[in-house]
């Protein structure tokens, strides 16, 4: 059959092949390329392991995206695919049809399958086939290892059956299989198990790491050498790392950690949350950075005035697009610190989050001129800070001049609350009317969001339960 065989005949041919008991590689050599994906799906869903093995050994595409097809805990079809790969890896000369170089176990294959399912029912153009399938030729055993892509989420005390089986398979074939992971997330797993998993991964493939479990500094120091090997890491998120850099032993751990971070020349996004060790040693973390950051998030951490000064002086914030300091208490900081920081990032900053920072009227008034120079700012949030109505009005007048600002989230002024921190419905309505009048006076169409602290619906200081105040511009109707 040619590539232009009518789609109805292709479907009939596929059903006939699935009913055949003797489907093997020789039969698949002449199968139209557009029949492979739908036939593979039928075989995978129907647990036709022998058909799967034969199809893997003649797969006409460079990449086989498999993760979207696997229904845990049923891994029988996956085992059949891995057994077929064993045969391929052992062959000196492959089928002239097989082009397989990448097994993809990430959740990224839906477009591939939907495109080829459409191709089998609507017909397949030669350009579509050329986009993902290589020309047929006699193929010798490739010199490069098979690449297996997977996103790892280590969230249990021990590995589940799927990962246990799969990692054992990879471990036994290290010379011929390279395990590539671009996204690594650690939620809960003993360090010895993490080390075992990472020892099988090509660490220079990792681009994003998120650690969301509670570690002490010594645990992070144990993990740090693996971080240092992730030479292409672009995004690092660490949360709930506890310790004090003022203690000698803990300080030594900080030195171990920063010495490895120095090796990350491609790091662009750094997110540190609820990490007590940062207080008093932020300058050490910043000095280890090798290139300017695009995004910096330091949230729910205790920082000193000295830390904020070092942040303002760091050359690595000169190109910052996003800055999040929410939950960093600044009430007792000198008012001139925040203006200096904002002046350093004014040319590039697009997102600024200062929620629940204890910012006072005096501090806000001090940084308003610098804020007015953040001409690229698109998102600004100040929820959870106790500010007066007078200062809120000044803030709205300054931010009205920012041409790119689209999302504004502000706290209800402190005069709105009763002594026990309750904001009555009538007072809230009055506040909304007052703020809307200010927006009308400014004359610029905009939407602002006002957050109550705490939220009467969920009790949180910052939450999504905010009502917008919308000014659409002047009305010119008669």
Automatic annotation (TrEMBL):
PANTHER family: PRAME NUCLEAR RECEPTOR TRANSCRIPTIONAL REGULATOR (PTHR14224:SF12), SIMILAR TO PREFERENTIALLY EXPRESSED ANTIGEN IN MELANOMA-LIKE 3 (PTHR14224)
Family classification: Belongs to the PRAME family.
GO CC annotations on file: cytoplasm
Repeat recorded as keyword: yes
Example GO biological process: negative regulation of DNA-templated transcription
Protein name: PRAME family member 9/15
Organism in which the protein naturally occurs: Moschus moschiferus (Siberian musk deer)
Keyword entries, A-Z: Leucine-rich repeat, Repeat
Coiled coil segments of this chain: none
InterPro entries named in the record: LRR_dom_sf (IPR032675), LRRC14/PRAME (IPR050694), PRAME (IPR026271)
